[in-house]
Write a structure and sequence with these properties.
The complex is a heterodimer.
Chain A (H helix, E strand, L loop, with lengths): L2 E5 L8 E7 L2 E9 L2 E6 L13 E3 L2 E3 L6 E3 L15 E2 L1 E4 L2 E5 H9 L1
Antiparallel strand pairs in A: 1-10, 2-3, 3-4, 4-8, 5-6, 6-7, 9-10
Chain B lengths: L2 E6 L3 H13 L2 E7 L11 H6 L4 H4 L4 H6 L3 E4 L3 E5 L4 E4 L4 E3 L2 E4 L3 E3 L12 E3 L3 H8 L6 E5 L3 H12 L3 E5 L12 H14 L2 E3 L4 E7 L2 E7 L4 E3 L2 E4 L3 E3 L2 H5 L8 E3 L10 E3 L4 E3 L7 H15 L12 E3 L7 E5 L7 E8 L4 E8 L2 E8 L5 H10 L24 H7 L5 E3 L4 E2 H9 L5 H8 L9 H12 L19 H10 L5 H7 L11 H12 L13 H5 L2 E2 L5 E3 L10 H13 L4 E4 L5 E6 L4 H10 L12 E6 L13 H12 L8 E6 L13 E6 L2 E6 L2 E2 L3 E2 L2 E6 L2 H18 L6 H8 L1 H9 L1 H18 L3 H6 L1 H4 L6 E2 L7
Parallel strand pairs in B: 1-2, 1-7, 2-3, 7-19, 9-16, 10-11, 10-16, 11-12, 18-20, 32-33, 33-34
Antiparallel strand pairs in B: 4-5, 5-6, 8-17, 13-14, 14-15, 21-22, 22-25, 23-24, 24-25, 26-27, 28-29, 29-31, 30-31, 34-35, 35-38, 36-37
Helix pairs in contact in B: 1-9, 7-16, 11-14, 12-13, 12-14, 15-17, 21-22, 22-24, 22-25
The complex binds siroheme, flavin-adenine dinucleotide (FAD), iron/sulfur cluster (SF4) and FE2/S2 (inorganic) cluster.
């Protein structure tokens, strides 16, 4: 693990998302509840929709392009659709958001 | 041999430690406390404040106790230094005392926000008896402001209120006690406290404290609001008291580092209570601190023990506010929520499950089963067997799984079904057996389900149970899977109950999910802002991306930008600014739209605030080409140029667009004004079209030229331009107040009937009301979103949170 400080939870609107740019595409950081955050690849497996622009509800996000719904916890498509979004370890510590750089690097290697 | 044990701090953790160590014997204890007294039950300060208890009732260790156990008390004396080498501590008196073992139990310090004026007299925290006495010193009728809507802040506020003090709570977050409660429970709590007369302001940021002659006078909020007060209580959090330990060179993180034996980095020094950090965790509730005291006592008397942190539960000690929260809502995989709401009785319960185990519970209104749920969480009990009935608590367990019909059938005759009208099951079944075979008939005979309607499902189940095959459950289409109610039901209930926030809708109407879904959220957000323009605040996170970003998202994730061109009229300067923007932001496509304006397609999301700012500078505002709101008002050239024109169609179009822009509507709204019946602006296929004639203006509504093609139908004919504007606004407002979200006007008119619409808009009094209601809403919503979002603070939201492309590769 290689935790990278990317900001504070308050930088993300409640029930919203922000993106983190990486060399291999954007990672969407979601905040479904005040002190709950998740990081997923910002690319819908359907047609590449930016998940960070979707509506966040419960612990899920709806893709803004064609309404596929994904679990923020597992990255799996819900309901009838089949698809999987990569998830990344993210945690809050001392009021900071820490994203696992090791897994991001693996993404590059893969 | 008796050895010397020095304990620094006589708080709740130390109190327990002294009891246990003196029972075992073997130590001579010296107990320092900065407060001029021994241990008392700090958590009971709130009942003292509210007058339900006296201080003497909450003292746990009195002088007699210490004398009996031979404890040397140094109360009112702060320890100023620890010398680990010499194994001594120095007290404020200058005395230096040797120890064989030392226990640090200094608790924590309240956090004081360093606002200008925080050091004025009358600005206090809420931690000890002195603070409590300060609050008790206020007379009825005086004013207090409490910053912080967490556990402590609310206990302070409720206690002050009980003394007749008028209290305002200022809370930074969107709902109360956000650490322990979700929004629904936070909403119920707020409703209760506001109902008592406590003024509560959420999402409110404090800016400075105003004083006079060194005394506090008022709190000023970021938005300029001034809240006068005689006392200001800050209850915004605590910090472990680590100064002494740090100065002594002990390992300190957020708190004093301790291992499972409560030993610090020096084996002769232990630490317990809120001042410690164990396994990355710091503490704020008393239960785990007592466990720590137990472990420390064992270690000091040579026994074996290890501290294990356990789940703690929170209750708010405000009489009449029944809430409970336990466990973990924050991290983890594969969670599931079970939500139960009983709007009639103001009850909300939510359980969080992971891997068939309960990991968190929040309850409001009925917390009787809290202990049982807490037990399930602590024991990590597998709940798969009872999952379906888990939320109903222990009394429902043990039998076969309940199906809803059987549950209704099993209810006793005196079970209340309709909370609003106090109708019980027996009355309803009697009515059904007496011939009331439909929901409406039951409503008419018993009044059940005739008020808020949330028991409709239960009444229908009773019909089904009583009538059997003869009753077919009606299939009115609910908004989405979160509720059984239809759009029409929800609109009606939002107005009649009245409901003014999303958590209020979710709770009072029994939503089955914690906070809705992508289908209901945009609809509810619209209904609330249309019905309560002053009270409700638009929620961007409940909007589809286009309305949140104020631009249409393209299939490649870029956006389109369409500035308004009032009535289709532009100027060379505007065109130049558009051309410059297209160059500057490398816009791949510039297109003239079917709505008489120009579309810049393919703008990158991060460039939006900048291109908007450029267009704003040239005097242009958002064209709302993305909104469920006013889109375009198409016009023809009219009397200014055209040889057939009868009225100034261009001028009227511009007036209408200037009156209506910025308003939100159930679906998009497009208008057109033609200067004569040749109708070059295609007014007769718009949501509202005006065709000018010699004698005035013919207004028609309900046209369509999208997925359906439909000619408009006449709404009325008026003589003057001013009336044409008035009728148009009244029509749009009527549509805003009544239509289902995502119904274009033609679909809505088909449901309510053109006659009804004509009667309403045609009635002078009602028309005036509609125009006034629209004006009120526009006073808030007619703002250029581009200008708002191009402002530096808001524009930041369009940029990435972090850019790791520059990080060195691993
Ligand atoms: C830009 C434009 C096409 C053009 O290049 O001319 C356009 C573009 C879109 N139209 Fe349109 N419509 C445009 C004029 C029209 C017109 C003609 C008009 O307004 O005179 C119609 C038929 C009239 C009507 O509205 O009934 C029209 C009927 C639709 C419909 C069908 C609506 C219906 O109720 O049947 C949709 C779908 C919807 O809104 O749900 C739609 C939706 C869209 C969306 C927003 C699709 C989407 O959700 O992404 C397109 C956005 C493209 C983009 O990325 O910018 N567009 N669209 C026109 C913008 C006008 C403007 O200046 O604001
Ligand atoms: C109003 C209120 C209501 C609360 N309600 C609840 C509740 O409902 N449930 C719950 O679980 N918890 C509640 N708490 C929290 C609970 O009171 C604390 O968790 C608990 O008191 C912490 O115990 P402690 O021994 O670590 O610290 P404390 O009780 O704070 O004791 C530390 C003592 O050390 C003294 N001290 C500090 N530095 C020095 C020094 N250098 N020399 C000498 N003495 C020093 C301080 O004066 C203080 O008396 C509440 C707290 C407050 C203020
Ligand atoms: S409708 Fe046609 S004819 Fe009439 S004024 Fe407009 S352009 Fe002229
Ligand atoms: S691209 Fe996400 S649903 Fe189609």
């Amino acid at each position: 693990m290689n935790w990278i400080d990317i900001g504070t939870p308050e930088d993300i609107p409640l029930r919203g998302a922000r993106v983190v740019k990486t060399r291999l595409g954007c990672v969407a950081v979601f905040r479904p509840a005040a002190d709950e955050v998740y990081a997923l690849a910002d690319r819908c497996p359907h047609k590449g929709g930016p998940l960070s622009e979707g509506i966040v509800h419960g612990r899920a996000v709806t893709c803004p392009l064609h309404n596929w719904v994904f679990s923020l916890e597992t990255g799996a498509a819900q309901g009838a659709d089949a698809g999987q979004v990569e998830t990344y370890p993210l945690r809050i510590e001392g009021g900071r958001l820490l994203l696992d750089g090791a897994k991001l690097a693996l993404r590059g290697a893969a | 041999m008796t050895r010397n044990l020095i304990i620094i701090g006589a708080g709740m953790a130390a109190g327990r430690l002294v009891e246990l160590v003196t029972e075992a014997g073997g130590w001579h204890i010296t107990l320092f406390n900065a407060e001029p007294r021994g241990t008392y039950n700090r958590i009971m300060l709130s009942p003292v404040l509210s007058g339900e208890k006296t201080y003497s009732e909450i003292v746990t260790h009195d002088d007699g106790f210490y004398a009996e156990r031979g404890v040397a008390c140094r109360f009112g004396e702060r320890v100023t230094r620890i010398d680990r080498e010499a194994r001594t501590v120095t007290g404020a008196s200058g005395d230096v005392l040797p120890y064989d073992k030392l226990v640090i139990a200094t608790g924590s310090e309240p956090f004081i926000i360093p606002l200008p004026g925080h050091d004025l007299d009358g600005v206090i925290a809420y931690r000890d008896l002195e603070d409590t006495e300060r609050m008790m010193g206020l007379a009825a009728g005086q004013r207090a402001v409490v910053i912080g809507g967490g556990l402590l802040g609310l206990e302070a506020a409720a206690g002050l209120h009980a003394r007749g003090v008028s209290v305002t709570v200022v809370h930074l977050m969107g709902h109360l006690m956000e650490r322990q409660l979700d929004e629904a429970a936070g909403y119920l709590l707020r409703r209760e406290l506001v109902g008592r007369g406590i003024d509560i302001r959420c999402s409110a940021n404090s800016k400075e404290i105003k004083g006079k002659d060194g005394k506090v006078q008022a709190l000023i909020l970021e938005d300029g609001t001034e809240l006068p007060c005689d006392l200001l209580v800050m209850a915004v959090g605590i910090r472990p008291s680590t100064g002494l330990a740090k100065a002594a060179g002990l390992a300190v993180g957020r708190g004093v580092h301790v291992d499972d034996q409560m030993l610090t980095s020096d084996a002769d020094v232990l630490a317990i209570g809120e001042c410690v950090e164990h396994g990355g965790q710091v503490f704020g509730l008393v239960a785990p601190l007592y466990d720590q005291a137990k472990v420390a006592a064992a270690v000091l008397t040579g026994a074996e023990a290890a501290f294990v942190n356990r789940e703690t539960a929170t209750k708010l000690k405000v009489t009449g506010c029944d809430l409970f929260s336990a466990g973990d809502f924050a991290e983890g995989e594969d969670r599931e929520d079970i939500v139960f709401r009983d709007p009639g009785r103001g009850i909300y319960k939510r359980l969080v499950l992971r891997d068939n185990r309960l990991i968190g519970a929040v309850m409001y209104g009925d917390t009787g089963d809290g202990g049982w749920f807490h037990g399930l969480i602590k024991d990590a009990t597998d709940v798969s067997e009872m999952r379906d009935t888990l939320i109903f608590g222990p009394s429902f367990q043990g039998g076969a799984a309940l199906d809803p019909m059987a549950a209704v059938a099993a209810l006793p005759a005196d079970a209340e079904i309709c909370g609003c009208n106090g109708v019980c099951k027996g009355q309803i079944t009697t009515a059904i057996e007496g011939g009331a075979g439909t929901l409406d008939a039951v409503r008419a005979t018993t009044k059940a389900s005739a008020s808020c309607g949330t028991c409709t499902g239960l009444v229908e189940q009773l019909l089904a149970v009583t009538l059997g095959e003869a009753f077919v459950l009606p299939t009115a289409k609910p908004i989405c899977g979160c509720t059984d109610l239809t759009h029409e039901d929800v609109r009606r209930l939002i107005k009649s109950k009245p409901l003014k926030s999303q958590p209020a809708v979710w709770q009072e109407l029994g939503w089955s999910t914690p906070n809705g879904c992508h289908v209901c959220r945009p609809a509810i957000n619209f209904y609330l802002l249309a019905d309560w323009p002053l009270e409700y605040r638009d929620d961007p996170q409940s909007r589809f991306v286009n309305e949140r970003r104020h631009a249409n998202i393209q299939k490649d994730g870029t956006f389109s930008v369409v500035p308004r061109m009032w009535g289709g009229i532009t100027t060379p300067d505007e065109l130049r600014a558009i051309a410059d923007a297209a160059d500057k932001y490398k816009v791949p496509t510039v297109k003239v739209t079917g709505g008489q304006r120009i579309d810049l397609l393919g703008v990158r999301g991060v460039d939006l605030p900048a291109i908007w700012a450029d267009l704003n500078r040239a005097g242009m505002v958002s064209g709302h080409a993305y909104s469920k709101g006013l889109r375009t008002v198409k016009t023809c050239v009219g009397t200014d140029h055209c040889r057939f024109g009868t009225q100034d169609s261009t001028g009227l179009g511009i007036k209408l667009e200037k009156a209506l822009w910025g308003s939100w509507t159930p679906h998009k709204v497009k208008l057109a004004v033609s200067g004569c019946p040749r109708n070059c602006a295609e007014a007769t296929c718009k949501d509202l079209g005006i065709v000018c004639v010699d004698s005035g203006f013919e207004i028609s509504v309900g046209g369509a030229a999208g997925m359906d093609v439909k000619e408009t139908e006449p709404l009325g004919k008026v003589a003057t331009e001013a009336e044409a504007v008035e009728w148009t606004i009244a029509f749009v407002q009527l549509y805003r107040e009544n239509a289902k979200y995502l119904d274009r006007p033609y679909k809505w008119i088909a449901k309510v009937g053109l006659d009804w619409v004509q009667a309403r808009v045609g009635d002078a009094e009602e028309r005036a009301r509609l125009v006034a209601a629209f004006a009120l809403s526009q006073s808030i919503y007619q703002r250029d979103p581009w200008a708002d979002l191009a402002a530096p603070e808001a524009a930041r939201g369009f940029a990435p949170l972090a850019d790791l492309t520059l990080e060195a590769a691993e």
